[in-house]
Design a protein that fits this description.
The protein is α+β, with helices and mostly antiparallel strands. Helix content is 57%, strand content 15%. The protein folds into 2 domains: 1-101, no CATH class; 157-388, PAS domain (Beta-Lactamase, 2-Layer Sandwich), CATH 3.30.450.20. Strands 1, 2, 3, 4, 5, 6 and 7 form a 7-stranded antiparallel sheet that branches. Strands 9-8-12-11-10 form a 5-stranded antiparallel sheet. A hairpin with a 5-residue loop joins strand 1 and strand 2. Helix 4 packs antiparallel against helix 5 (107-187). The longest helix has 81 residues, at 107-187. The protein starts with a helix and ends with a helix.
Length: 432
């Protein structure tokens, strides 16, 4: 069975790829049955020549690939079938009617009837070609336009979701950074720790400084606002200096209801952003830590979104904390006047916002902005994508659709023009 199937497939493939010298036997048999003609009828020979010429014309345009041979055979089959139908229609319908009137005085009318019939058939086919082409082209264009619109909407939704995911991921990363630091500093502010000797507390603060590279300085303040310990990476450690912190906002603004305080971000030596974190300890003392925000700056600078998307970080007052271009941070820009920053500061939700288009931005031109809040610090992560990049897929789809529409119209006009030129001129009898 496998050998017979393989042989049948090989024979079929050979029929598809060979160069024909005549029409297939099956088509000739069907045409002979429709014409009621023997196998050696000259009309079958003419139809066979039409088949071969059609195959050669199509093959010259498509090439010698196997699929091109198959397409040439299909085109020749269709042309043979149409020509055979035309001959059969004339032989079985038009010619018998004409023969009835070829005797005597009505012979001229019979010839005129034959010419009018054939002209009507050809003109009808030519006139239907343009509307049929326009109808098929319109259906394809409408379907393509709907598919393009749906594809663009899905692409826009995916881009917006990616933008929201970026904002939430960066906000979570920075929040974990702040939460971890608060837990580490809070360990040094427990009542048990406050009862330890000053030497042990000093060792613990030094150990905490080594374990947390982002902590640059730690100060222990007693309930009276006097500095008891100072451990620093950039200065000499000081024990029991007695420095007065009572009027310093980092100490004075702490209370039982506000046990944690984040200061405004500041620049040290205009190279790196810092923030002071104050934590209330028992009994009524405080730990003040100076935090280097370089990890936050690197996280913001590492955000990549599309070709020109970017992220930046603002504090609760709207001042810029982190940006891929550190010169923007060095300028200490107040961004509370931007519409998207104002909207972000006015919300208390921890989830990323839905993307909105804003005309104002840090750069030039409108942007789509998404923001997410950081619970531990109250800062806001802003992720923005230029409006031109957001709308690029849509305009690309519009241009492709316009190109297809123009191509379809030109093809229909050319086809209609070609059909009009192929119409035969009416005979004198038909115009009489």
């Amino acid at each position: 069975m496998i050998t017979k199937a393989g042989a049948a497939i090989a024979a079929l493939w050979g029929d598809v790829t060979h160069t024909p010298s005549s029409a297939p036997r099956l088509l000739e048999s069907v045409a002979a049955l429709a014409l009621r003609a023997p196998a050696d009828d000259c009309r079958l020979g003419d139809l066979s020549e039409v088949y071969v010429r059609t195959w050669q014309q199509v093959a010259r345009r498509l090439g010698n690939a196997p699929w091109a041979h198959a397409a040439s055979h299909l085109a020749a089959d269709l042309r043979y079938a149409v020509s055979a139908f035309d001959v059969a229609l004339f032989t079985r319908v038009v010619d018998p009617a004409i023969r009835v009137g070829e005797e005597g005085c009505i012979s001229m009318l019979a010839i005129d009837l034959r010419e009018r019939t054939m002209t009507l058939i050809r003109n009808g086919a030519a006139r239907l070609l343009l509307p049929a082409t326009l109808l098929a082209g319109s259906a394809l264009l409408i379907g393509g336009a709907i598919d393009t619109w749906m594809t663009w909407r899905r692409t826009e939704a995916l881009m917006l979701q990616l933008q929201k995911d970026k904002a939430e991921a960066i906000a979570l990363q920075i929040d974990q950074f702040g939460t971890t630091l608060l837990q580490q500093i809070g360990w040094a502010g427990t009542p048990k720790w406050a009862e330890m000797p000053s030497e042990q507390r000093h060792i613990d603060l030094m150990r905490l400084l080594r374990q947390s590279p982002s902590i640059n300085e730690l100060a222990e303040i007693d309930p009276g606002g006097r500095e008891q310990l100072l451990v620093s990476r950039l200065a000499i450690d000081v024990v029991a200096s007695g420095k007065d912190w009572s009027k310093d906002a980092r100490f004075s603004e702490l209370s039982a209801h506000h046990a944690i305080r984040f200061s405004s971000v500041y620049l040290r030596r205009t190279t790196e952003p810092y923030v002071s974190v104050s934590l209330r300890t028992a009994p009524r003392g405080a730990i003040v830590a100076e935090i280097n925000l370089a990890p936050v700056q690197r996280a913001i600078a590492g955000v990549k979104l599309g070709d020109s998307g970017y992220a930046y970080l603002v504090e609760r007052t709207g001042y810029l904390i982190a940006h891929p271009d550190f010169n923007q941070v060095r300028a200490q820009r107040d961004l509370s006047g931007l519409a998207q920053v104002g909207a972000a500061l006015a919300t208390s939700s921890d989830k990323a916002s839905e993307g909105q288009m804003f005309d104002s931005s840090l750069g030039a031109g409108p942007v789509r902005s998404v923001y997410a809040a950081i619970p531990s610090t109250g800062w806001r992560v802003m992720v923005e994508l230029p409006a031109a990049e957001v709308r690029a897929p849509f305009w690309g789809a519009v241009m492709r659709g316009a190109g297809l529409l123009l191509f379809g119209l030109l093809a229909a006009l050319v086809a209609g023009r070609f059909a009009v030129r192929r119409q035969p001129a009416p005979s004198r009898l038909a115009t009489a």
